[in-house]
Design brief:
- By secondary structure, the chain is α/β, with parallel strands linked by helices.
- 42% of the residues lie in helices and 12% in strands.
- It is built from 15 helices and eleven strands.
- The strands form two sheets. It has a nine-stranded parallel beta sheet.
- Helix 5 links the parallel strand 5 and strand 6 (141-145).
- The longest helix has 22 residues, at 265-286.
- It is globular, with a radius of gyration of 19 Å.
- The mean pLDDT is 97.
Length: 380
């Protein structure tokens, strides 16, 4: 019987973090860890803009940040083909499904800026999927998220919204809707059997009710307690003067996060519960099954002095339990730290197994069966 799948986010780390000790130098060992912990799928960056341009080229990627442990903190060289095919083969051998997305990482030539039209976006994905189809690996693909957290300017700087200042969480504008609708339609013409979406974040989930997303097969939405109520938690911890993705931000977390959390723990937990329940109701009103691969407690975290994992795991367990109770999730992560570079989270195998079992035992939203997603969730 089909049940919700437990999925983990490996973003661009799967190919960028391959130096000794970075977590992904041995894909076989990392994927064995996925199975041991009970996960059914991984979500990765397929780098479609680079594969489309020159599949076998060695690309020089520039760091998107130096403080977080997703990806490389320094420039790094990657060769994406046949690496993507090899990774997909290793996943299929373990019956691990793969969700494809893209953060549209910046390379030395910044080729991502050519994606200003939905036609260009569609072409890069069609070219990438053709490589996968030619390798006979399409049955491994779970869904395609054409752009991570569209139209946030970190990941989609090529897109100019109308008005231009509407970036993060502003997918509901006419310009953004037209871009997404056209891009998905063009990719679907070539590969009609796959599920498609653009992923979002933010609190404005009421737009699921107000905008027509019938061209989506699922809603992938990212939600964290720390970003709810206009990022109240981060405001109380303190805003880094040089930006969130910096060491200063981690120093503020180390100095203040535990006190801020424990001083009104019940409030923060209820904030998360309310946010999850609201998201579930809005997605249900839109007739879309939910996928969440980045969640539930804190957004940015890592192994660091005075940053214990206990409170993060408690919040994430609450998030999983609450989401399971709604019955609206077809695909669910336990956090955005379920990866080998986050040692304090990854090594607690029993914690992962408890939560992935909870996910497997949750009800499956009936909407999942009505779309290509239900078919893609199964192994033939």
């Amino acid at each position: 019987m089909l049940h919700p799948l437990a999925i983990t986010m490996w973003d661009f780390s799967w190919i960028e973090r391959r130096w000794d000790g970075a977590g992904f130098e041995d894909w076989n060992a990392a994927l064995d860890g996925v199975k041991e912990r009970g996960y059914d799928a991984v979500r990765i960056d397929a780098f479609p803009h680079l594969l489309s341009q020159a599949p076998e080229k060695e690309w020089l990627l520039l760091p998107v940040w130096y403080s977080n442990d997703w990806g490389s903190p320094y420039k790094v060289r990657v060769r994406l083909f046949p690496a993507l095919i090899d990774f997909l083969k290793a996943c299929r051998a373990r019956r691990i499904k793969v969700a494809l997305s893209s953060w549209f990482r910046e390379d030395a030539d910044n080729v991502r800026m050519a994606l200003s039209t939905p036609q260009a976006m569609a072409k890069c994905w069609i070219d990438t999927l053709r490589l996968i189809a030619n390798a006979g690996l399409m049955d491994t693909i779970l869904y395609v998220d054409l752009c991570n957290e569209f139209p946030g300017d970190f990941w989609s700087p090529y897109f100019r919204n109308d008005p231009p200042w509407m970036t993060w969480s502003c997918w509901h504008t006419d310009a953004a809707m037209d871009y997404m609708r056209t891009a998905i339609a063009l990719v679907r013409q070539e590969y009609p059997d796959l599920p498609y979406c653009f992923s979002f974040d933010g609190e404005n989930t009421h737009f699921y009710r107000e905008r027509d997303l019938s061209f989506f097969d699922l809603a992938e939405h990212h939600i964290w307690m720390t970003k709810l109520n206009k990022q109240q938690f981060y405001r109380e911890v303190g805003q880094a003067k040089d930006g969130r993705f910096t060491e200063e931000a981690y120093h503020l977390l180390a100095d203040h996060a535990l006190d801020v959390y424990h001083n009104k723990e019940d409030y923060w937990k209820q904030l998360l519960v309310d946010g999850i329940q609201t998201l579930a109701a809005d997605a249900k009103a839109a007739g879309l099954p939910l996928a969440t691969t980045e969640c539930w407690g804190i957004t940015d975290y890592k192994d660091f002095p005075m940053l214990p994992w206990g409170w993060v795991k408690d919040l994430c367990a609450l998030g999983v339990e609450t989401a399971c109770q709604t019955g609206q999730w077809a695909l669910m992560a336990t956090s955005n730290f379920a990866a080998p570079q986050f040692c304090g989270m990854w090594r607690d195998v029993a914690w992962h197994q408890r939560l992935t079992t909870m996910i497997h035992e949750a009800p499956l939203p009936p909407e999942a069966e009505k779309t290509a997603l239900g078919r893609a969730m199964r192994w033939e």
